[in-house]
Specification:
It contains eleven helices and twelve strands. It is α/β, with parallel strands linked by helices.
């Protein structure tokens, strides 16, 4: 008996008897029988080793021990009810765990609204998002550490399969000028003394840019390698250096106050995004739903910038 503990049911019946001053009334309140309540109280007293109620022909009375025990039981029952109330919020939607990888292009503006919608629909899914560049994310997908990742289009790699996800225009991003238009257009081949902050050589976007430069006669005067997206934005906002960045990551209203954003055209310069997943397995239902929301938000932002280029 010493190792036993009072159950929630024991406490409920005790509280009912204490408040009703009657085993019969407590039974009616709790949907039990009078004899059942009496037996529970008797077992509880034996378990605790103390008398809780006095019995007489006129009814039951409470002891000082019952007064003290009642206060603590109310606290326990309140916490128990609160715990069950919290769980109600998680009773709908999917469950499980989702672990995905996104490059900074996706995490800056696309991720937050998509993730907020997902959590509201599926609160019992544990989500982990890893931010990184294409090379690192591809290795983690191949190793099975991530269910999927979204990266720039690249040559096929063993262990992963890819499919086209979306296309977004590239922007030339410059520090905000006093009299310049916030959003406009630019032909890179017409620019002299172009000073660009560029991704590192292992970044898929670096090769993408260099191919465009070579094919379209773009003359780059100086380059500065920064594989740090927030650092790139901060540096550009404070200097005369520029950067070429995907339009979907420049959708924060603050960007229009901090930068001049010019769509690159003649010819247009777009970035293709692909979904990669491990070749040997399929992604979970939770990952599929999160991907659908991310894809919808990506398309929404891309359509906005595509209308700007017409």
């Amino acid at each position: 008996m010493a190792n036993m503990q009072a159950t929630i049911r024991d406490m409920r019946l005790f509280v009912a008897a204490y408040e009703e001053h009657s085993f019969t009334a407590a039974a009616l309140r709790e949907g039990a029988t009078q004899s059942g309540v009496s037996q529970h109280i008797g077992k509880l007293e034996a378990l605790l080793g103390v008398r809780l109620f006095t019995r007489s022909k006129s009814g039951i009375g409470t002891t000082p021990a019952a007064d003290a025990y009642y206060i603590r039981c109310i606290e326990v029952l309140r916490m128990h009810e609160s715990a069950h109330g919290i769980l109600k919020d998680f009773a709908h939607g999917l469950d499980g765990e989702v672990c995905i990888g996104l490059m900074p292009t996706m995490t800056r503006c696309v991720l937050a609204p998509a993730l907020a919608n997902f959590i509201a629909l599926h609160p019992n899914v544990a989500v982990r998002v890893v931010e990184g560049y294409s090379g690192v994310l591809t290795k983690q997908v191949a190793a099975g550490e991530l269910e999927f990742a979204i990266v720039p289009a690249f040559s096929e790699t063993s262990g992963v399969r890819s499919r086209h996800l979306s296309r977004t225009p590239e922007l030339l991003v410059t520090k905000k000028g006093r009299k310049s238009k916030t959003v406009g257009f630019v032909r890179l081949a017409e620019l002299d003394q172009l000073k660009l902050v560029v991704p590192g050589k292992t970044n898929a976007r670096r090769l993408h840019q260099e191919r465009y430069f070579a094919s379209n006669g773009v003359r780059v005067h100086r380059t500065l390698e920064l594989d740090a997206m927030l650092g790139t934005l901060a540096f550009v906002s404070q200097t005369d250096w520029q950067a070429i960045l995907p339009a979907i990551m420049m959708a924060d209203p603050k960007d229009l106050r901090s930068f001049d954003l010019r769509l690159i055209r003649d010819p247009a310069f777009d970035l293709d995004l692909v979904l990669i997943e491990a070749a040997r397995r399929t992604i979970s239902r939770g990952a599929e739903v999160l991907l659908e929301l991310i894809n919808a938000e990506t398309d929404r932002l891309s359509r906005y910038w595509q209308t700007m280029s017409v």
